[in-house]
Q: What sequence folds into this?
């Protein structure tokens, strides 16, 4: 596993009152010089802040701001390559903000210092009063150019907050720009995104018992997925968005079913007197991962959907509690909640390894959700009785998204939105 | 060489310069994602008025961690519940199962349900009609006491009869 070094950065976003805390980054990060964007000072400050924090949060970058640089070029012709080479800088990012009335766009360049040449020039057209979004798009372009992997700065996170009432909330991946989808006096649990990120499914207790709802984000239109008298929970969309797996308590016990969202046909998947729940789909929709108590303790099993009469195959054998699993987007392994002795941790198991790798070391880490590029896991932690969101990258970087008010829990990462 | 890729409401134009080294040229537009807030109208359980006689059947049954079997103490409590239900044949009861906060929320929801079903099974075995019983679970969502210690946890692993 990669070694990590410790850096502590607290940066205050004046606009959002959000505090982002990075606790660890990877060894040998990309060294990037960020020259402040030319143009409107206020927008430039926002963009620089957003881009810098996004790149640092990925754990893969070390950013050199203007005060750490030996020269600040105004344009490409002015770049003194030796000033950057001497600082061992890999890439230089520079750009300009263009405003025309209320229309804002930004043009930026990524320059490979070692090659001595420009590797990217991009223009992003913004939306009035959404300058942070503009910054997220630029960050993702820089990230993709340098790492070769799609960035996740312009994605969103869905989660539940509780102060007195329960709220279902959507925010940017950095925790800013919170918007409430649903307010309720009764508990809301298990929120998930549809694959196109236009809808969410969740469990609400507003009718007096657990029921699964689907809600359109833009219109607020919502419905109970099955009208019957049974408790229903733990929704998960199939990758094509046509099916929803869920847990129904038809005979008093938790069993997993697949609901065809078009014709509402239900197919029963499990039939065991112990608990079967927390289903989730493999990236190509051919397998279902779920938690079952059939061995005497909660463990993870998978079921082949395209094989006739397939039996659940047990995937976890170490530890006395392995639950709430999800497949990595590249299908190389699973991420889940693991307890070896008394602490609940987030852990990963690769299919080509026969052991579990713990990713966190707190006492009560829960609800892991994987970013669409597969590089970051967001999860909930309990700190002095308070629920907070935390993140860990597979390269070893850790960060926190502290709550502004109330307890925050059960994060779910959207798909790519760019 | 120009490649145009149209995806929803943004456009990416990628130009590969086939000179000495390749450079990416892109154009894109920020996606406006609208969000509408909805307020759930809930059936507030606190406002449901129970038959005053049901008070005689009120009880709380406690459980061990990750367990749903009845202890001998619980059986003592349930014996009085059976008597109260036999004495007052008009009483309908609700069994609400709960779990402590350790473990995942969905597994705890299922565990709460199992606990409530265990209590229901005992009552039915002792002659109480299943039609008089409603079974449901709140998992770890409605703790009786707040606190991160075994004393608090043990008070939250319960089935409430009312």
A:
């Amino acid at each position: 596993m990669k070694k990590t070094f410790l850096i502590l950065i607290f940066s205050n976003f004046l606009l959002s009152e959000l505090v982002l805390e990075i606790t660890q980054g990877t060894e040998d990060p990309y060294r990037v010089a960020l020259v402040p964007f030319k143009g409107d000072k206020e927008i430039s400050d926002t963009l620089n802040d957003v881009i810098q924090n996004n790149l640092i949060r990925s754990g893969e970058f070390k950013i050199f701001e203007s005060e750490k640089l030996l020269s600040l070029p105004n344009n490409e012709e002015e770049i003194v390559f030796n000033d950057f080479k001497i600082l061992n800088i890999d890439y230089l990012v520079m750009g300009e903000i263009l405003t025309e009335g209320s229309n804002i766009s930004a043009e930026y360049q990524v320059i490979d210092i070692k090659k001595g040449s420009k590797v990217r020039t991009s223009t992003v057209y913004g939306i009035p009063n959404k300058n942070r979004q503009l910054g997220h798009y630029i960050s993702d372009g820089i990230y993709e150019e340098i790492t070769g992997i799609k960035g996740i700065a312009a994605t969103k996170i869905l989660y539940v907050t509780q102060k007195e009432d329960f709220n279902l909330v959507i925010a940017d991946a950095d925790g800013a720009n919170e918007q409430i989808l649903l307010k309720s006096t009764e508990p809301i649990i298990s929120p998930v995104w549809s694959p196109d990120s236009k809808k969410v499914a969740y469990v609400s207790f507003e009718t007096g018992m657990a029921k699964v709802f689907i809600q359109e984000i833009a219109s607020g239109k919502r419905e109970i997925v099955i009208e019957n008298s049974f408790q229903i929970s733990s929704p998960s969309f199939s990758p094509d968005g046509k099916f929803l797996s869920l847990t129904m308590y038809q005979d008093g016990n938790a069993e997993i079913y697949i609901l065809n969202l078009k014709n509402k046909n239900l197919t029963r998947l499990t039939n065991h007197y112990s608990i079967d729940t927390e289903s989730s789909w493999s990236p190509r929709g051919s397998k279902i991962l779920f938690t079952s108590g059939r061995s005497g303790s909660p463990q993870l099993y998978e079921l082949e959907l395209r094989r006739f009469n397939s039996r659940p195959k047990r995937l976890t054998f170490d530890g006395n509690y392995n639950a709430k699993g999800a497949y990595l987007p590249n299908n190389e392994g699973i991420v889940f909640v693991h307890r070896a002795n008394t602490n609940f941790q987030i852990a990963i198991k690769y299919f080509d390894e026969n052991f579990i790798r713990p990713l966190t070391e707190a006492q009560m880490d829960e609800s892991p959700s994987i970013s669409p590029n597969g590089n970051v896991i967001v999860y909930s932690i309990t700190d002095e009785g308070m629920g907070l969101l935390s993140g860990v990258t597979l390269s070893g970087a850790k960060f926190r998204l502290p709550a502004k008010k109330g307890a925050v829990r059960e994060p779910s990462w959207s798909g790519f939105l760019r | 060489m120009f490649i145009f890729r149209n995806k929803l409401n943004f456009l990416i134009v990628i130009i590969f310069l086939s000179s000495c080294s390749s450079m990416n040229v892109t154009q894109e537009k920020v996606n406006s994602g609208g969000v509408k807030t909805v307020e759930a109208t809930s059936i507030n359980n606190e406002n449901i008025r129970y038959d005053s006689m049901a008070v005689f059947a009120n009880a709380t049954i406690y459980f061990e961690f990750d367990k749903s079997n009845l202890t001998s103490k619980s059986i003592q409590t349930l014996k009085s519940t059976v008597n109260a239900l036999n004495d007052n044949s008009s009483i309908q009861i609700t069994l609400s199962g709960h779990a402590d906060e350790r473990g995942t929320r969905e597994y705890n929801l299922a565990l709460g349900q199992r606990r409530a079903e265990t209590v229901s099974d005992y009552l039915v075995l002792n002659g109480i009609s299943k039609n008089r019983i409603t079974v449901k679970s709140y998992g770890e969502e409605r703790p009786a006491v707040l606190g991160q210690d075994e004393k608090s946890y043990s008070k939250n692993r319960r089935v409430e009869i009312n």
